[in-house]
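the three lines:
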Amino acid sequence: MQITAKNIAQLIDGVVVGDPSAPISGPSKIEDGQPGTITFLANPKYKEYIYTTKASVVLVSSDFTPEKEINATLIKVENVYACLAILMEKFNSSLSIKSEIASTAVIDPTAIIKENVAIDDFVIIKPHVKIGQNTKIFGQVFIGDRVEIGQDVIIYPGVKIYHNCKIGDRCIIHANTVIGSDGFGFAKDDQGNFKKIPQTGNVVLENDVEIGSNTVIDRASMGSTIIKEGAKLDNLIQIAHNVTVGKNTAIAAQTGVAGSTTIGNECLIGGQVGMAGHISIADGALIQAQSGLASSIKEVNSKLYGSPAIEYQTYLKSYAYFKKLPEIVHQLRLIQSQIDNLKSNQ
Amino acid sequence: MQITAKNIAQLIDGVVVGDPSAPISGPSKIEDGQPGTITFLANPKYKEYIYTTKASVVLVSSDFTPEKEINATLIKVENVYACLAILMEKFNSSLSIKSEIASTAVIDPTAIIKENVAIDDFVIIKPHVKIGQNTKIFGQVFIGDRVEIGQDVIIYPGVKIYHNCKIGDRCIIHANTVIGSDGFGFAKDDQGNFKKIPQTGNVVLENDVEIGSNTVIDRASMGSTIIKEGAKLDNLIQIAHNVTVGKNTAIAAQTGVAGSTTIGNECLIGGQVGMAGHISIADGALIQAQSGLASSIKEVNSKLYGSPAIEYQTYLKSYAYFKKLPEIVHQLRLIQSQIDNLKSNQ
Amino acid sequence: MQITAKNIAQLIDGVVVGDPSAPISGPSKIEDGQPGTITFLANPKYKEYIYTTKASVVLVSSDFTPEKEINATLIKVENVYACLAILMEKFNSSLSIKSEIASTAVIDPTAIIKENVAIDDFVIIKPHVKIGQNTKIFGQVFIGDRVEIGQDVIIYPGVKIYHNCKIGDRCIIHANTVIGSDGFGFAKDDQGNFKKIPQTGNVVLENDVEIGSNTVIDRASMGSTIIKEGAKLDNLIQIAHNVTVGKNTAIAAQTGVAGSTTIGNECLIGGQVGMAGHISIADGALIQAQSGLASSIKEVNSKLYGSPAIEYQTYLKSYAYFKKLPEIVHQLRLIQSQIDNLKSNQ
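prediction for all of em together
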């Protein structure tokens, strides 16, 4: 694919500043951009690179004003990231499988599979499964009894989906993720041994949900564990039984959410965050990485940090003094000796 | 399955308060209970729902006394969770495979497989493996050389068990968990490069152990990594080489235990806890989520929190003052100025 | 295999103190050593065991001087761990597959596979893959389009490698690890919905890299996510898009590194550490387990702890006072009352 700066600008409704005929064969990063590629400037941290990058074209925000000369051609747009997404899709050469059913797949005859579905080698599809049109299922995936999968879904290699779970349209699930394993529920019997509490519910992923690799979403003990429309979960995340993750909420890698907790819509949860069970987090919460949430957050758009998490700025201020604790204690001793002096002088 | 409140009460030795003929077709959660279902009240947080739930029957503790009118029929029992476990099993419709060996499984002829074993599609069983009766092995599982698996075991899809490991009777291992991969052991050679220390031991799961999804238990460098009888491990847990987890100990998701550490019996370990290597934790320890254990815990039934972890209440008290550090420092300044005043007045 | 202390000493250039004909059939741990085995003393914590161990032979440092009588034969060497590694390899009986291609593997005819490669059952190899000589690929592995794998590589069961990734010579990748899944990149569109930013780059593992089980290394959005020569990553680690991990750096389990961060050479990163995105860590850093790195580390050989991480000793000192905060606040009150006294006495 060989296109020009002008072609790109038309595609994303941008304004060219420089050579509209600059040729572009693919994307690159601004700090190691190559001639013939397009790059972008979105994070101000990378501003300096725009003056030295070898990339031929740079996507910038419409309010960007250069402070010195720039060799590259610029394309100015309203939303750099959104335009970048459109561009990258142009250059994307993703993992692909043919829209056919591999002869090695083992598919129960009661499964209902719509047109144009791709099923790769060594996939197992159990009885009464339903799969919508244009869905792609990569190799070595396991789909349990009565699972329902929507249309235009992509399920990457090695994913395991337990019985009765439901996957909405346009969902993407990355490799080796597990959907619908048993929640962690036990009761001690009279002899003090754990007895398993059967987990009879399921997992529901609504439309446009994306889940990373090696993540686990446990089935509800009763009812459903629900990941709502448009939510995005990164790799190695733990979602316990009966959790609800709100619409358009994004959760970074290695975060864990304990049982029956409800996370609101439009939240941004950092990596390695832990949330206690049976709490609820109001819409728009911004949780700093490694925080621990022990109780419910009632105010919308809260910004939190720490374990247990408190208001973000309060944590930073307290932590600044935490680092000075040896000094503070030293001061305390000085004060006491001054008092002792004053006393003896009285 | 259609049974009545009276049937249920007989099954779990409970006392009916209300309509003994109330019909029950399945379980539900108290906050979204449906007519014709049975629910339960165990966590006091949910007490309010008992007055509004639409569920026909509610399982309650024998010491429960209603504060206002309740529409549902009650069944009073000694231990709500234990009775619930019995009930849920009644309603359980789990992932199932036939007690036969799939034609696509690749099983070495030297493997010894007892009667009534189910082996699903694309399972690999290496030489000299032994599998006890009634055990179920789901699709795409890998069982390495000389692995021994007991009876009535369930191994969910995609589990990988390396050579020489031993799995006791009635164990359950959830999807994509790895048992017996190499411990993380390296020594620097003269050129400063890491040289791998071979990991020649194995992993032993004793009877009645349950392991969640995407968990990893590494083989011992020498000897065995041991998970003792009745221990329960959640999802995404890291157990390093030569660790021992005690009898009936439960570990929540995303906790990591470094090499050669020994955890006692009957411990409850929260999620995202980290434990240093070469330490030992006395029986009955209660470790709060996200704690970090840097040294051994010698006292039984210790309750700990923090990183490094300290006594639970002490951590909470100290953390309460941590949040007030800016205020404390401000007070310190006020005190100093008072002293300065006193001095100048002397 | 039956060899003597003398044979072993010759192999590792050690000096025998005791019976050179002591027979050795395998390795054991010093605290539960059995007659006829060889064990070692490297960690001083275990020193006491050398006087009671039943092992026939103990590997010790050349500067070790016994404080009382020892029954075992000693072999004195310069570097105990390095010699142990050589010995363990002698006794190692690892997971093995034949150097042949299983009839059940599905290999695209365009793949180029060199001599003496082992490919186990149910492996999927997509178009234009290249695999070097002597490489072993265990069962149920997925190798995406155009992946290049070096020679003498071991890929354990269930590993999934997405398209275009590159694996160097002598790399080892443990079970169910995912290499090259999409980085976590989304931009909000005008309706406030997340739009996926295509991840067009790849992952490069240089030579002699070892990766644990259930770890995830995401592909770069553009360019490469790079794990440099000799680096060792443990289980359940998250490496985000465009990260670089330096040469001979070791990372313990459950650590997560956010996007575009660069870790230097020869760093030792503890378990459950979190690193923010777009930062860089200088060579030789020593990061304590559970730390959180929020900003770049510029000084080489830094030792850090805490979240956000600060200098190691400073953290320990501050934490020592953190534990005494209730006491410090009490002292503050006493001081105030003394001042009040002084004031009223003036």
